[in-house]
Amino acid sequence: MNSIPAGWYPDGAEWETFWDGRGWTDRHRMRPPAVAPADDGRPDFRSARWGDSVDDVQEDAALLHGDDRLMLYASTIDSRRVTIGYEYVEGLLVAGRYVVADRYPSPQHYVDAFGSFTTLLSKDHGDPVVDRPVWEPAARRVPRDQWGAAVRRGDLRLMAAWTSPRTEIVLLLEDVGHESRLGVVCSSRTHADWIEAVRRNQALALL
Questions:
Q1: What DSSP state is assigned to residue 43?
Q2: Taking phi first (over 0 means left), then psi (-120 to 50 degrees means alpha), and beta for anything else, what does residue 25 get?
Q3: Cα–Cα–Cα angle for 127, 161, 155, rounded to 5 degrees
Q4: Global pTM?
Q5: Contact at 8 Å (CB) between 14 and 1?
Q6: 6-to-20, 69, 72, 151 alpha-carbon distances in Å
Q7: 100: which strand partners?
Q8: Are 16 and 9 in contact (CB under 8 A)?
Q9: Which residues pair with residue 84 across a beta bridge?
Q10: Nearest residue to 198 (alpha-carbon basis) of 29, 9, 18
Q11: Is beta strand 130-135 parallel, antiparallel or unpaired with respect to 156-163?
Q12: Using CA atoms, how far apart are residues 206 and 200, in angstroms rounded to an integer?
């Protein structure tokens, strides 16, 4: 009886092959970077750490969608309804996101909510390294009290960003399908080069 547990095992210098507990499979992936625990012991996204598997991640919220690349949950943050997303590459957690699910009565309310989230994130992560409006080149620039309508037209995006040694955080308000969308994306800086290499190899495999 074979006692080797199922999992990914080295297959050369840069690759791993999956052992299903009974034999080698035809599943292969580039070897991911080793991720050491954060110096302060804090998780990277909610209670999860970058590099966790789908089975490692525990979320106490209503499941909306689940597969090996994306898990979506419904929850609330700061009295706002949000969709929480966990994104995986080759079975490893590399990004997480929040998208505000509430629909506000006017476009300008989204601008106000963007400011509230900027304040909330700055309490945990300090001043943003980026916090500015991004206008389309041909757009007519309008005063701040009209920014909500400008976002809805697709003329303007609002963006703020924070960085740490392990994580990049981007808060974004933009138009998606003629609706304002406010969301936060947290992504692993440790896995950034590996993700790019994985996707490059996947694209080459399609040629």
A1: -
A2: beta
A3: 120
A4: 0.84
A5: no
A6: 5, 20, 26, 49
A7: 82
A8: yes
A9: 73, 98
A10: 29
A11: antiparallel
A12: 10
Give yes or no for a contact between 17 and 9, defined as CB atoms under 8 angstroms apart. yes
pLDDT, average across residues 185-194: 93
Average pLDDT on 157-170 reads 95
Q: What are the structural domain ranges in the chain? A: 51-207
Tally DSSP H helices, then E strands, for the chain: 3, 11
d(CA 186, CA 124): 13
192 Cβ contact partners less than 8 Å away, ≥ 6 residues apart: none
How confident is the model over 71-100, as pLDDT tens digits?
999 999 878 899 999 999 989 999 999 999
Residue 79: left (phi > 0), alpha (psi -120 to 50), or beta? left
Instruction: Give yes or no for a contact between 186 and 50, defined as CB atoms under 8 angstroms apart.
Output: no
Chain centroid to CA 116: how far? Answer: 20
**Contact assessment for residue 53 and residue 93, using Cβ atoms and an 8 Å cutoff:** yes
Quote the tokens at residue 132.
């500015």
**Angle (nearest 5°) at CA 67 between 69 and 75:** 95
Exposure on the CB side of residue 192, measured as CA atoms within 13 A: 9
